[in-house]
Amino acid sequence: MLAALYAAKKKLSHYYSMTDDIPDDLYAIGTIIAPQQKLQFFSGKDWDDPVADWHGRYRASLERYLEPYQWRLLDTQLPTSVQPSAMAISELEMICVPQSSQQSTTNPDDELSLYLDSALASLARDILSIPATGAGVERLFNSARDVCHYRRGSLSPGTIRDLMLFMCTSRFDLKEEQRAMINEYLSYEEVQADREEKDTKASEFDPISD
């Protein structure tokens, strides 16, 4: 069991390190806008790095990514007496600084209002609506549920891996056979109609904050 836990940690660490390559640091921004985490999450000893300043990098990424949302809502949400820079600073500080570190005179409802009605709300809807994994990856891991049954507890890790890969490749082969059959027996118009129907179901949507 201990060896399995170490192997799982090693594998997860490998995948987690790939989040550094996500464009615009979206994974880190999603962590920052979580009220229980904020930017302080990247200030702990686990993030001490003599080479990279993760805290500064992620704050800069958040500032850069939040700016278009602030300008888009500027005309509708700001009084004429408030400057854009003042709104940007106050909003950014609110989501970066832990609530316990803020002044005691701050209205406790201010932070809730900020998350519900601001540029941050639009940013959060877009960032948090991004799926963490693709459907293909989920299907691969879900196939392990069918393999790792309690009646098959004696299977070796290699056997489990081979069975999972066999199940995935078998399903892929079935899809290829189905595609070949469609191309052989259906007319060009019927094939196009089938593709259009599938494309309609799998159509992409605009960001929900728009």
TrEMBL record:
<feature type="domain" description="HAT C-terminal dimerisation">
    <location>
        <begin position="120"/>
        <end position="164"/>
    </location>
</feature>
<protein>
    <recommendedName>
        <fullName>HAT C-terminal dimerisation domain-containing protein</fullName>
    </recommendedName>
</protein>
<dbReference type="GO" id="GO:0046983">
    <property type="term" value="F:protein dimerization activity"/>
</dbReference>
<dbReference type="InterPro" id="IPR012337">
    <property type="entry name" value="RNaseH-like_sf"/>
</dbReference>
<dbReference type="InterPro" id="IPR008906">
    <property type="entry name" value="HATC_C_dom"/>
</dbReference>
<dbReference type="Pfam" id="PF05699">
    <property type="entry name" value="Dimer_Tnp_hAT"/>
</dbReference>
